[in-house]
Amino acid sequence: MRRAVLTLGGTLAGVAALLSFKTHPGTSADAAASPVVPAAPASAHASGKPTVQPAAKSGGGMGDSTTARVLTGQVISTQYGPMQVQITLSGQKITAAKVLQQTDTGTNSQQIDANAIPKLTSETLAAQSARIDAVSGASYTSSGYVQSLQSALDKA
Question: Which pTM value belongs to this model?
Fold first, then answer.
C-alpha cells in the first residue's frame, strides 16, 4: 500500500512538473522583431554590424538601390562530413541561405540533415545573423552550419 501511494504521488508530481514546463517564449516572434532593428541602418551609418558599412559605401552613397551579393562560407569539416553555407545579402539583410555541402555519412546522417537544415535556414533568415540555436539531435550539423555561416558573414 505504501508503494502505491509513493508511486501515485511521484506520478502526480511528475505530471505537475511537466505541465508547468515553459519553453522559449516564441523564438519566431523574437526573431521576427530582430530584423526590424537591422532595417534602420539603411540610413548611411550602421552601428549594429560592422559589415554593413562597406556594403553601403560600395553601393554608391545615397542611393537606396541595393544589389544582391552572394557570399560563400568556408567548408567546415565535421565528424560526419563537410558543411558549407552560401548566403545572399540584399544590403545588410540575409535574403537566402543555401547549404552547398552537407554531412554525408550514411542514411542516418541524411535523415538528420533533412530535418535540421531547413530549421537552421529558417532560423538564419529570422535571426539575420549566425546567432541561432542548434537543432536537437544534429549538433555536428548545427555547429558546422553556424561556423560556415559566420565565415560567410565575415566576408560581407
Answer: 0.58
Tell me the pairing of strands 81-90 and 68-72. Answer: antiparallel
Considering only CA atoms, which of 121, 111, 68 is closest in space to residue 93? 68
Low-confidence ranges of the chain (pLDDT < 50): 24-64
* Closest C-alpha among 52, 85, 47 to residue 66: 52
Distance CA 147, CA 78 (A): 11
Instruction: Compute CA 137 distance to the chain's CA centroid, rounded to the nearest angstrom.
Output: 15
Taking alpha carbons only, the member of 100, 90, 71, 78 closest to residue 147 is 78
Which fold, 26-154? Sufe protein. Chain: A (3.90.1010)
User: Environment class of residue 66 by beta-carbon count within 10 Å: exposed (0-12), middle (13-18) or buried (19+)?
Assistant: middle
